[in-house]
Amino acid sequence: MREVDIMANSRGFTLIELAVVLVIIGILMGAVLRGQELIKSAKEKKFFTKLRYIASAQFTYLDRVGRYAGDTTNPPDGIIDNDNTAWTELEQQQLVHDNDRRHIFNGQFYFDGGDSPYGNYNYIWATRVPCWVAQSIDNKIDDGTANTGNVRWGNSLGSWSNYATESDPNNARRLYWWFDR
């Protein structure tokens, strides 16, 4: 008889209580996922801002000195040919700081340039850029295609990726921006 009384007095959770708990868990999971997206978006914006800042530093240097930082030929030919000199000259003009070379994804920015039958070109390139960031930057600045235009990205110069066929959007790639076009 005593067992029956114990069972009669014990209560479980009602369906409403379980539903409330599930709703709260769902809200918390949604907030966490949304927070992760906000963090990703903030990192991408920080990377893009720094990329544009570095390009602006080169244009400011060009206005002040009459050539790009890192164009070491005499007379200047409009082509950045020395990355270390470029950063040193930009720092001497107080346009960048030593830590501006690193970016949010633990990679670095570099300067380079060259010439082609179509004219001289200069670019900023960055290492360790996640594919999803490279695609976003390409969409903002250029045509959104990894192997054409003024923004390109891939494993190395000449080996371009295709975001649609990337197995993992977090794969690190190099991003190239022909900033003087």
Q: Which helices and strands appear, and what pairs or packs with what?
A:
Layout: H1 2-9, H2 15-65, H3 83-92, E1 109-116, E2 119-130, H4 131-141, E3 151-156, E4 159-160, E5 172-177
Write a concise synopsis of the structure shown.
The protein has 181 residues and is an alpha+beta fold. The chain has a single domain (45-177), classed as 2-Layer Sandwich (TcpA-like pilin), CATH 3.30.1690.10. It has helices at 2-9, 15-65, 83-92, 131-141; strands at residues 109-116, 119-130, 151-156, 159-160, 172-177.
- Enumerate the spans where pLDDT stays under 50 for 5 or more consecutive residues: none
Q: Report the portion of residues in β strands.
A: 15-25%
CATH topology: TcpA-like pilin
Number of strands: 5
Span of the ends, CA to CA: 90 Å
**By CATH's scheme, which homologous superfamily applies?**
TcpA-like pilin
Largest sheet: 5 strands, antiparallel
SS-derived structural category: alpha+beta
Q: Provide the succession of SSEs.
A: HHHEEHEEE
Tally of alpha and pi helices: 4
Helix content: 40-55%
CATH top level assignment? Alpha Beta
Radius of gyration: 26 Å
CATH architecture: 2-Layer Sandwich
Count of folded domains:
1
Task: Strand order, main sheet: write it out.
Answer: 1-2-5-3-4
Specify the overall morphology: elongated
Kindly report the average pLDDT value: 87
Report on this structure.
It is a single chain. The protein is an alpha+beta fold. It has one domain: TcpA-like pilin (2-Layer Sandwich), CATH 3.30.1690. It contains 4 helices and 5 strands, in the order H-H-H-E-E-H-E-E-E. It has helices at 2-9, 15-65, 83-92, 131-141; strands spanning 109-116, 119-130, 151-156, 159-160, 172-177. A 5-stranded antiparallel beta sheet has the order 1-2-5-3-4. Strand 3 (151-156) and strand 4 (159-160) form a beta hairpin. The longest helix is centred in the N-terminal third of the chain and has 51 residues, at 15-65. The protein is elongated and about 100 Å long.
